[in-house]
Amino acid sequence: xxxxxxxxxxxxxxxxxxxxxxxxxxxxxxxxxxxxxxxxxxxxxxxxxxxxxxxxxxxxxxxxxxxxxxxxxxxxxxxxxxxxxxxxxxxxxxxxxxxxxxxxxxxxxxxxxxxxxxxxxxxxxxxxxxxxxxxxxxxxxxxxxxxxxxxxxxxxxxxxxxxxxxxxxxxxxxxxxxxxxxxxxxxxxxxxxxxxxxxxxxxxxxxxxxxxxxxxxxxxxxxxxxxxxxxxxxxxxxxxxxxxxxxxxxxxxxxxxxxxxxxxxxxxxxxxxxxxxxxxxxxxxxxxxxxxxxxxxxxxxxxxxxxxxxxxxxxxxxxxxxxxxxxxxxxxxxxxxxxxxxxxxxxxxxxxxxxxxxxxxxxxxxxxxxxxxxxxxxxxxxxxxxxxxxxxxxxxxxxxxxxxxxxxxxxxxxxxxxxxxxxxxxxxxxxxxxxxxxxxxxxx
Length: 444
Hints:
- The protein is of the alpha/beta class.
- The chain folds into three domains: 2-69, Udp-n-acetylmuramoylalanyl-d-glutamate--2,6- Diaminopimelate Ligase, Chain: A, domain 1; 87-305, Mur-like, catalytic domain (UDP-N-acetylmuramoyl-L-alanine:D-glutamate ligase, 3-Layer(aba) Sandwich), CATH 3.40.1190; 314-443, Protein-Tyrosine Phosphatase, Chain A (Alpha-Beta Complex).
- The protein is built from 15 helices and 19 strands.
- The strands form four sheets. It has a six-stranded parallel sheet with strand order 6-7-5-8-9-10, sandwiched between helices. The protein has a six-stranded mixed sheet with strand order 14-15-19-16-17-18.
- Helix 5 links the parallel strand 6 (118-120) and strand 7.
- Helix 4 (101-112) packs parallel to helix 10.
- The longest helix is centred in the middle third of the chain and has 17 residues, at 185-201.
- It starts with a helix and ends in a 14-residue tail after the last strand.
């Protein structure tokens, strides 16, 4: 590993797992998955200018430009851990949760960057490949790393914490998602709780949403941890209502964080995030910032400067409509809070366009029926995907009520909207990534 680390440094700390992205001088890792084998592209990576290629022993590849190992993914992860351990005084904050991971990670990055050199997960690279790539992208001057970790199986977080070795941890929430991989809600808690387990093993610190009863119980079950609490109720903050003049999430925050007040004379955080549910994400970032010495004013300013992207909590104004786009992910809990937040939006015409939720296993039918019932009182609803079709049939039979329409996929919905334009509306667009609900945006 020491020799490989020297090679990595000689490559300018530049690592690639995609031969098509080679620009010259990178260390290429030939990863192998169920549907791809990077070993088949190792020669192309070298031809494109990669300095060296790390390949599997089973590939049969040999030569001075090949570094042959038993398991290329394991080697990538080991190299990342080695690099993490060789950055002096590095603080690593591990972040996971059912909803809000990426938004919270971006807000924490923004807040900490007011005072520190910060590295953070790029985009949504939060899996067994993305986490090591995040660590390997860190410069020697990095002071704090914010590492997002996703999970769809019981042991995912348990594996990822061994790579990034966080001394601080934050779970945004625990909800019903990826039940197909976790088996049950208890499985979800156990999987996410692996972050708390690791923090406990190193005597680290947990940033805890004290308003969340489930997380509070989970944290109390772990010993040898320091708890840094925050929360809407815990801090006596006030989430202000949204309206036409204030469409984004706003929250009044006591200057003493935890003091009393009615919101009339409190600093107000004016975000660019859509949805009151983002208040907890913003407070998490403030809690982290305050712990590391960022002032409340600087933390609020950093969050206010954050512009959401990547189809998460975005407000998009077109020539004819106002769109609330949250189409990167969907599960029962995130769908519920999105609909609850949308209900508080003041608008003459409100439209909901929802794509089905994926990877819910045995609870999928029930979860989609819950959504169907939740939108029953709305006047204009468009549902996409076979799971919603089955739910509609269960709830309504073969005759749908006026105002609810179903489409097999987002392309079909887009084609329908093109023929039947929607104008002058505030529209919520949400669905799992597989549904590609953003395809309806161009016709709105």
